[in-house]
Design a protein that fits this description.
By secondary structure, this protein is of the alpha+beta class. Among the domains are: 110 residues, 2-Layer Sandwich (Beta-Lactamase); 162 residues, Histidine kinase-like ATPase, C-terminal domain (Heat Shock Protein 90, 2-Layer Sandwich), CATH 3.30.565. 49% of the residues lie in helices and 22% in strands. The chain is built from 13 helices and 17 strands. The strands form four sheets. Strands 2-1-5-4-3 form a five-stranded antiparallel β-sheet, sandwiched between helices. Strands 7-6-10-9-8 form a five-stranded antiparallel β-sheet, sandwiched between helices. A five-stranded mixed β-sheet has the order 12-14-15-17-16. Helix 9 packs antiparallel against helix 10, helix 11 packs parallel to helix 12 and helix 12 packs antiparallel against helix 13. The longest helix has 86 residues. The protein is rod-shaped, with a radius of gyration of 50 Å. It starts with a helix and ends in a 6-residue tail after the last strand. Pfam families: HATPase_c. It is an enzyme of class 2 (transferase).
């Protein structure tokens, strides 16, 4: 693995840079999101303060108006004046009240008294809103007359927009409601009282117009809102919101809008509700976040100033480290390869010695027969020829053994066509004596040539390694000792060869590591842990070659077995026409 890393060090450096850059980008984005979240939290806190201040002012104003109106009811017998339709008496009482509001800088724009049937007995209003009011009463007064209780809320039915409070007029003698009183307040009062809250912010009021086509109380589309005509809000703020309204989502707590080079966070979530809880309008607040955006670029530039030198230093250290340790790693790989060859050579000598014992024994018997018959005077030409032929057969057999095992350690310098079927059959012939001695049956079901590109004897050496590895495991069990070799072709000419044994399988914790060097399932005294590692190296020499291990069951001649399965996969050559 180190060898692969070192031979692709440029790729590693590029990947390191990309990962570092991605990490830098991710940290920057996350930090920006958190900063934006903090900014939103701050903005939401400001909005919450505005909302609470607004609600508190509305509540206090309602209490003061209620106490004031009830005191007038009590001190002036307003119920009797309404019951008697005494308009002059009502004017005498409420004209000073209206003037008193003005004197106290409370912008009351409407003061109305009606009887129980809704007829207007007294009305005092701002000259700017006199038109279109003749004989009409607001939804607040209608609600008071219908439900006989005090209510407050924002109205926009026949006046531009105002905060309306309605009070029932009760006859204390009979307990009956004889009429109702309405006090309408210009919303500029709240801007006047809460001006300190809006300092540094842009703000405007919009009214929901349900008279427009398709606009209902539940509809929050932009087309159903209009700016109020009379307001003490700065005209530049009204113009600002008129320009950005298409970018504002009325259904969202916050919307980000851009005006030229400036960025704003707009909140349309403060609602003005009518007496029956329906939305009558909205209060728009815009927080200028241009400086926040600029700071983010400053933070980004600062990070880049630290990131770029750091990543250059990191890549330099990585590159120098690769160059410095490449010789060490290459030397380790060379030593590992040498150990692999030595281990293979040691095993080869052991197997040669084992397979030579029988022919050597036969040669010894032939020499002894010749000597014995010569002493007894019974050595004739026929017997001599028979013993010489027997000796030559065994010598030839031993020579073939040397050639076959030597081929396992020899590999060509260039890739060429190699045949899976022939390689497996040669491998089986090499290991057959040791397999027969250990009562191991090899079932080879590769019945047709399968060609691929590789080095000479690669497939034979790989097959021998896998067979001997399976032999070592099978020798540790009792019962059926079987090795099944099968071959199947999949899509795109991919061939999968399976070497299955009946030894019970590889321990699960070693299943994914068996191809690493020095990892072995045998006792340390019996195994080097290099056999399957060599198989992996050989497999990678084949076209699209790879090898893996798994545990799986299989059936052979009606008997079910379970054990390790080493799978080899490569691309076969297309058949020649």
């Amino acid at each position: 693995m180190w060898h692969l890393v070192l031979t692709n060090k440029n790729i590693v450096i590029v990947i390191t840079f990309m990962l570092s850059f991605c990490l830098f980008t991710a940290i920057t984005v996350v930090d920006y999101i958190y900063r934006l979240s903090d900014y939103r939290f701050y903005s939401k806190s400001v909005f919450s303060m505005i909302d609470q201040s607004f609600k508190s002012e509305v509540e206090q104003l309602s209490k003061r108006k209620t106490n004031y109106m009830k005191a007038i009811f009590r001190d002036n017998d307003i119920a009797g004046m309404v019951r008697d339709n005494n308009v002059e008496a009502l004017k005498k009482v409420y004209d000073p009240v209206y003037a008193n509001f003005r004197h106290r800088l409370v912008p009351v724009i409407l003061l109305t008294v009606v009887d129980a049937q809704g007829r207007v007995l007294y009305r005092k209003s701002d000259m700017a809103v006199d038109q279109g009011m003749e004989g009409r009463i607001s939804g607040t007064l209608k609600h008071v007359l219908e439900h006989k209780r005090q209510v407050s809320g924002f109205e926009s039915d026949f006046l531009p927009f105002w905060y309306d409070s309605g009070f029932p007029i009760i006859d204390t003698k009979t307990g009956q409601m004889v009429g109702a009183l309405e006090v309408g307040l210009d919303p500029e009062w709240f801007q006047f009282k809460l001006g300190w809250v809006f300092e540094g912010l842009r703000s405007a009021m919009v009214v929901k117009d349900t008279t427009l086509q398709g606009c209902t109380p539940e509809n929050t589309t932009l087309a159903c809102y209009r700016f109020i005509e009379k307001t003490v809000l700065p005209l530049k703020d009204v113009q600002f919101f008129s320009d950005v309204m298409p970018q504002v989502a009325m259904s969202s707590d916050f919307s980000e809008v851009t005006v030229g080079q400036e960025h704003f966070l707009v909140s349309p979530s403060l609602r003005f509700n009518s007496h029956d809880g329906q939305e009558a309008g909205r209060f728009l607040v815009a927080y200028n976040m241009t400086s926040f955006k600029k700071k983010q670029w400053v933070y980004l530039y600062t990070r880049l100033m630290f990131f770029l030198p750091a990543i250059v230093m990191l890549l330099t250290v990585i590159y120098i480290g690769f160059r410095k340790h490449e010789k060490i790693i290459n030397e380790k790989n060379r030593q590992l390869a040498q150990k692999s060859k030595n281990a293979a050579l040691g095993e080869m000598i052991g197997y040669i010695g084992h397979q030579w014992r029988q022919p050597l024994h036969t040669l010894s018997l032939a020499v002894q027969n010749i000597e014995l018959h010569s002493r007894l005077g019974q050595l004739d030409e026929a017997l001599l020829r028979q013993q010489v032929d027997l000796a030559n057969q065994n010598i030839s057999y031993m020579s073939h053994i040397i050639d076959d095992w030597r081929a396992l350690l020899m590999s060509g310098s260039s890739r060429q066509e190699i045949d899976l079927q022939a390689s497996v059959e040669r491998a089986i012939s090499v290991v057959r004596p040791i397999m027969e001695q250990n009562r191991i049956t090899i079932e080879n079901r590769i019945s047709a040539p399968v060609l691929t590109m590789g080095f000479v004897n690669d497939l034979m050496q790989l097959s021998v390694n896998l067979l001997l590895n399976a032999k070592d495991q099978l020798c540790m069990i009792e019962g059926g000792r079987v090795i099944l070799i099968t071959c199947s072709e999949e899509n795109d000419r991919m061939v999968t060869v399976r070497f299955q044994d009946s030894a019970g399988g590889i321990p699960q914790h070693l299943l994914k590591r068996v191809f690493e060097p020095y990892v072995t399932t045998k006792d340390k005294a019996d195994g080097t842990g290099l056999g399957l590692y060599l198989c992996q190296q050989i497999a990678e020499n084949l076209d699209n070659g790879k090898v893996w291990a798994e545990n799986s069951p299989f059936e052979l001649n009606g008997t079910h077995y379970f054990g390790a399965c080493i799978c080899l996969q490569f691309s076969r050559l297309a058949a020649k026409e």
